[in-house]
Design goal:
Layout lengths: L9 E5 L3 H12 L3 E5 L2 H10 L1 E4 L4 E4 L2 E3 L10 E4 L6 H8 L8 E4 L6 H8 L4 E15 L2 E12 L6 H13 L4 E3 L3 H22 L3 H4 L5 H18 L8 H11 L6 H7 L10 H11 L4 H14 L7
Parallel strand pairs: 1-2, 1-6, 2-5, 3-9, 6-7, 7-8, 9-10
Antiparallel strand pairs: 3-4, 8-9
Helix pairs in contact: 3-4, 6-8, 6-9, 6-10, 6-12, 8-11, 11-12
Amino acid sequence: MLPAHSVPLSVAVMGAGAVGCFYGGMLARAGHRVTLIGRPQHVQAVQAHGLRMQTLGFDETVQIGASTEASAVAGADLVLFAVKSPDTEAAGEQMRPHLKPGALVLCLQNGVDNAERLRAVLPGIQVAAAVVYVATEMAGPGHLRHHGRGELVIEPTPSNTSRSDAVAQLLSAAGVPTEISDNVRGALWAKLILNCAYNALSAVGRIAYGELVQRPGVTDVMHDVVAECRAVAAADGVTLPGDVELAVRRIAETMPAQYSSTAQDLMRGKPSEIDHLNGYVVQRGTALGLPTPANRVLWAVVKLVETPSRPAG
């Protein structure tokens, strides 16, 4: 049983990039014991100076634990799991021998199948999927920059919904609006559609959302991508919540300065999650017998850009 939300909680963040640092930082700022687990340059900066959180509401340096080792999840009541989608199984296996019995792992990743994949490598551990709506970036080692939003939608934990309630209260009290939904699969697909509409185009153009939608032909391409995604979701038995087209339009309005995570990855020379975004829609479309040409083109173009060319001869 998780402690009540008024009691300081022990929290580990596996994958302390922009998303992990935002939510871990908010919990640390609220008085919880948080350890970020991430890359050496970020960990060293946080250990030396704390985590600078430059948000729309405040600009503060938060003192917070940091480690490069997966063993730092030991003793945590709550683990925020925020590694890149291709690293899900490997990171889960690294954590497994160190997790406290009864720990809850909250999956804060892009894509729709990460929680399922994580459960496969963490038998006996409670894993709950979450949908993340936040615009963030790492502006430098130990320096988080927040561009907008920050809410979470989480699924009820199997067999013990009071744990979900406790986590939602804890996060809300820390300044993170959180709701529990019985249709997290639909919400994850809705978020996937937003990512499919924006991520690849922002990455290829190296352009923020607000300017992106002003460029010729972009909104038409987005419309085609969304239509394909909706068809695949329907064929896969997914019920999408809300007005997806409206949500796509609102992203550029609410996060005009945001570059997609795919754009941030490519600009830093890192592999992207495109196989788990547009690539996932192509995969499911193929399995279900549905054509996805717009998603296939965006997937292929990002794969071309992220793979360095090799000299001939």
